[in-house]
Amino acid sequence: MPDGTLISAPLACCDTAPGLLPLAAARERLLRAAVPVVGEEALPPGMALGRVLAAAPRAALSLPPFDQSAMDGYALHAADLAPGAAPRVARRITAGEAAGPAIGAGEAVRVLTGAALPPGAAAVVMEEHVALRDGRVSARRLPRPGANIRRRGEDLAEGDILLAPGMRLDARHVALLAAAGVGTVAVRRQVRVALLSNGNELGTAIRDSNRPMLAALLARPEVTLTDLGVLPDDPEALAAALRGAAVGHDLILASGGISGSDADHLPGALRAAGGEAAVLKLALKPGKPLAHGRIGGALCLFLPGNPLAALVGMLTLGRPLLARLAGLATEMGPAPLAAVAAAGFSRKPGREEFLPARIIDQDGFGLPLLEPSGPFGSARLTPLAAADGLLWLPAATERVAPGDMLRFHPFAASFGLA
Ligand SMILES: Nc1nc2c(c(=O)[nH]1)N[C@H]1C(S)=C(S)[C@@H](COP(=O)(O)OP(=O)(O)OC[C@H]3O[C@@H](n4cnc5c(N)ncnc54)[C@H](O)[C@@H]3O)O[C@H]1N2
Ligand code: MOO
Q: What's the pTM?
């Protein structure tokens, strides 16, 4: 039996069909029930790629760690930064060597990029700008004091906070941590997700496509996945599986078996297993039915069975929920792009919509020109595979005219797909 009673908040927007919950309200509701997982691991930066920082790492070294040359050239004393000076080349320092004694007036030191500068080095003149005669250097172009010197600590000082908790580590952060001499970083433990598909039909001529799709979306560094396989439309088997998954998981993710027919048992099984379940009807196309709840320490998100609806539910609700559980500072993905409708079409208003669309060209401003990538149908996968992203339409839209501005979520940028 569907349980709409938990939709208690009045619907804020007149654009939405009566009785349906706007997507933003559903997201808020899911996030309200979620807190970041507790527990951390200490990992070397190179092993922590994609993980979420649990604490702010501090620099173990200043950067640069000592005054160093930014160029291949000659370090000069302040007294030799004058026309006519021709200091004698006293020695040579390469990157990694000790700086040695101070430079005196009348002395130049041959330095390579990254070399430690001896005390008394007032500037480095690039090798292209000098003439070398009898072991003496004369600058054709005199450097200004401080030229071509990277000062100790100019980028950051030892003890500085490098990155904020809640950030996901990418290649840039790994470089910064490595340079700053950070041995290990504290990252949140992975979110433990159990994944299942529900439906007696799955595995016959109807293949389970949602589970591989969702598993692919969950193949991320901050997630560890348990695949529970396909479960039949059997309330007892479902309840037993949910009870088992309640231990050792933070999220149980499922698709199918929620919309309320006499063959849809998942929310009922969750209650029978001792959990709580709410069945929602969203003002979202595709993806009207959705169920959520909890059992033990695990939150539950049950997506609709139709493949496109499962994908849209995962991208718009599952991803923000996972971001919250993983401890990311923000649940929002990258901002969508502005795009332009290449063709017009009509639609039934009342539900906001995500429509697979492809970029067919660019307009005069370089904005993508979009068209739906095939006939719409929440069970159709071919328009989805041919799309570059999802075009979004507000609930109130009845007609899209050629040239209309649209909001577009490219798969790669907005959802990390592809
Ligand atoms: N009388 C009504 N019928 C339906 C409604 C409704 O409001 N009233 N809503 C429709 C919408 S919209 C959707 S979406 C589906 C959602 O239903 P369920 O989540 O209960 O999903 P099922 O009935 O189990 O399956 C629907 C459809 O999807 C196929 N499916 C299911 N799981 C998978 C999978 N893992 N891989 C591939 N395909 C899957 C399944 O075979 C069905 O064809 O309900 C509509 N009906
Ligand atoms: O809205 Mo149903 O979720 O597939 O089309």
A: 0.90
